[in-house]
Task: structure prediction
Amino acid sequence: MSEVTLSAGIRSNLISLQNTNKLLSQTQTRLATGKKVNSAIDNPNNYFKAASLTDRATGLNGRLDAMGQAISTIKSADQAITSIRTLTAQMKAVAEDAKGENDAAARENLGTQFNELLKQVDQLAKDAVYAGVNFLQGSTVENTDPALKGNQELTVQFNEKLDKSTLNVQGFSVGRADYGEGDAPTALSLSGSELGLTNVTIGVHSDGTGAKTSTANEVFFGGDSYKADMDTLITNIENFEAQLSTASKSLANNLSVITTRQDFTQKQVNILNEGADKLTLADLNEEGANLLALNTAQQLGIGALSLASQANQQVLQLVG
Result:
């Protein structure tokens, strides 16, 4: 079958109309997507540059979630420290009451209260867990509880690439020193060499019947040397509180760093997305004007094509 023969005028108008339709389709796509670059075919250079910026923004967005969780973890530890300081203040008050109490039986009762406060501090420290991390169960004192091993520090990732930019938040150890046997009371210890903390131990009330035992951590509230013992105990409590304050400051500094990086990352994500948009987004006002112009051109093209075919129609009338 032979091809249809078109006159030069009709062919010229047809090509012009086809180009108009192509541009019209492109403009409609830009208006529908809001982008002037929808694939590498549209503009390879801009497309791949924008993809790189978008990929980095996506990676940083993922880091923002982890930063938020790290902030919550530190806040949980800080709240635990505040609560422990409330308990240690009560412990110091009990020791001061015992120092001023002449009755041995009354001091024994105060010693029992003191031991209970030690127990509560230990339990509070173990309960200060957020998302599996407990900054109060540090690595400087060996943990016998498998659930607590290795969860005393947290590495916060700031860069979209792994380990490119990080902050390692170190924990410390608050817990009862396990030197006793059976149900014997155990001293409370605080340590954390990673934070520059010095091991501090708060002695316990001995349940003995008279003289102090050979364990240096035990304090006999009912003994004759109770005043000197209470002075030592109060000093140890104050040292314990000072170490808690040092640990709290370290966590606060880390919190400040993470918060600053979180704010920077949020702004960086916005900048990256904005840069990608500049490379790919369409000017909708311009595209709207183009659509109007192309619709007009399309109508004119159809009219021109009709005029170009009138010569053939006149021949048809002669033949008819």
